[in-house]
Amino acid sequence: MSHTDSQTVVVTGDRTTGPLHLGHFAGSLQTRLNLQQNHNPFILLADTQALADHQGDYCKVRQAVIDVALDYLAVGIDPKKSTILIQSMVPELAELSFYMMNLVSVARLERNPTVKSELRAKGQERDVAAGFLTYPVSQAADITALRGTLIPVGEDQLPMIEQTNEIVRRFNRMVGENILNECEALLSNTTRLPGIDGKGKMSRSAGNHIALSASSDDITAAVNKMYTDANHLTIGSPGQVEGNVVFSFLDAFDPDSAKIAELKAQYQHGGLADSVIKARLNEVLQALIGPIRERRAEFAKDPDAVLSMLLCGSAKARQTAVLTLHKVKTAMGMYYF
Amino acid sequence: MSHTDSQTVVVTGDRTTGPLHLGHFAGSLQTRLNLQQNHNPFILLADTQALADHQGDYCKVRQAVIDVALDYLAVGIDPKKSTILIQSMVPELAELSFYMMNLVSVARLERNPTVKSELRAKGQERDVAAGFLTYPVSQAADITALRGTLIPVGEDQLPMIEQTNEIVRRFNRMVGENILNECEALLSNTTRLPGIDGKGKMSRSAGNHIALSASSDDITAAVNKMYTDANHLTIGSPGQVEGNVVFSFLDAFDPDSAKIAELKAQYQHGGLADSVIKARLNEVLQALIGPIRERRAEFAKDPDAVLSMLLCGSAKARQTAVLTLHKVKTAMGMYYF
């Protein structure tokens, strides 16, 4: 494995399918806030990839680009430290992806476990858009064009990193030179945040989420709806902590872990009402989301400044992508002049 | 169907997999020579597509770009009338293709009869590169980016036109506006030139071709090897004209069709030696290819001029492609500024 330089380059991002929620905060945003202290991560707003996901619902995608950018700024992603870019504003990503399409077989894409499980979830095994089946190629192009070396991912995204490195190795072998660099996964150590209904992970499409822009009332309503332990019928009876959504949330967001351990013991023993743990969680979430919502509203007052930040970020990222594509095309002899 | 203007725009081209041969001359180059009198065709050197075909044999592709350009000039394609462009030099084609990938399903691509038969011929049904399965999308992007309305094709390429128009309709429906225009096929009325061995069509991969740059000796050798009628054992015995490669070539290239009809009658009746019809064909082909070879050698003396012509053609085509992509991205709301 050969890096062209010894510097760590973090590349991460989101498909822009809608505003972000607490699941994103627990799963990736907190990691990014840590990473931006010592690295200058590229954070990619994957609008083109979102189109594949949404079968061309481009109005939704466009709005989501703005929404996700506002969410980033609201949680503390700092454009001075992180480079936020819009995928479609760096056309070299599409161009590199186009070349990489020759370096991976259809059969290999169909075997990609991440793609397979996403297709199963969508019930689209047969009628999948070509752009969806090939999105691992697009992702490989995004990562390598920006010369990413460290990619924060959840466990379910590991096959994407593997596929990226396969493409990189195949390209380098083809041109007989290490033009592109392989990358490593940075596995997030958080467990996935469940939805408020306790059915699988939190996701907007399942409607079991709490948005980062949720109002105070939204938060209270969501906490009240939360699944605890269906067998915890009286306050006095012992309750289950495992699979109890309220405790999962407290584990993820309550800074006082000693207090949580104490509450869990009490709940398991019996004598602790659901209303008590829900009240605590409501307090924790209000304290977490309140300032995010306020900062978000502040940033939303000046959409031009947000767009300008995205323009700068995209232009900055483009410099790197142009250079990579130049190396790729030179190695392939595709400059004729 | 809505054209943005009433002008006919011809788009055609070749995958740059190697120098052209007589099969190309009979099948497409003659049509282009006619078309360039009244239209200004775009002729695309599909180098990126050739990479998919050649599984990344980029050295071959690069050389073929120059070879095919020389062949064009040698047969009389005039850069003042025809715009010759290199696919990879108009990155907007890759970008548009990337967006179009969301408008066609994998199942639909797998059903494309042209792709299916090409895959069968390559014996690659299972291990096809993603870039090959999706090449109809790339072709649709090429045609529509250049605003092609009339596409000269052989019968076997009709499914590509159909697929292009499907993508166009789907895009226009999606954005609720006729941004892209549909195209029509201009079916070539020539029958496919057989290979000199009479086994299927002429193709370089089958080794049964006569290159447009063939030397005088090459031509004579190829004509001598040509398949006539295996049952025409003596001069006096009646010979078959159907499936007789020499007569197929005479039909395609001998300007004196009355004389050919006479020779055919005589051959069928008996009394005409293979050597006589071969001598005539040799003469016809020497007269056809001789000047092409000479002009080719002339142009090859100044490769910089050829490259400069390709640079200008690509830049000119790029103006159109940039404009189309601008309309596409605007319609999709993908300009954020």
Show unreliable segments of chain A: 1-5
- N-to-C SSE string of chain A, H for helix and E for strand: EHEHHEHHHHHEHEHHHHH
Q: Measured on Cα atoms, how large is the radius of gyration of chain A? A: 22 Å
Q: Care to count the β-strands of chain A?
A: 5
Strand content of chain A: 5-15%
**DSSP summary: helix tally of chain A:** 14
Main pleated-sheet profile of chain A: 3 strands, parallel
Percent helix of chain A = 55-70%
Please identify the top-level CATH class of the largest domain in chain A. Answer: Alpha Beta
Mean of the pLDDT scores of chain A?
A: 92
Q: Please name the CATH architecture of the largest domain in chain A.
A: 3-Layer(aba) Sandwich
Bulk shape of chain A = elongated
What is the quaternary state of this protein? homodimer
Q: Say which CATH homologous superfamily of the largest domain in chain A is assigned.
A: HUPs
> How far apart, in Å, are the first and last alpha carbons of chain A?
32 Å
Structural class assignment of chain A: mainly alpha
- Largest interface, Cβ cutoff 8 Å: A-B, 52 and 52 residues
How many domains in all of chain A? 2
CATH fold descriptor of the largest domain in chain A = Rossmann fold
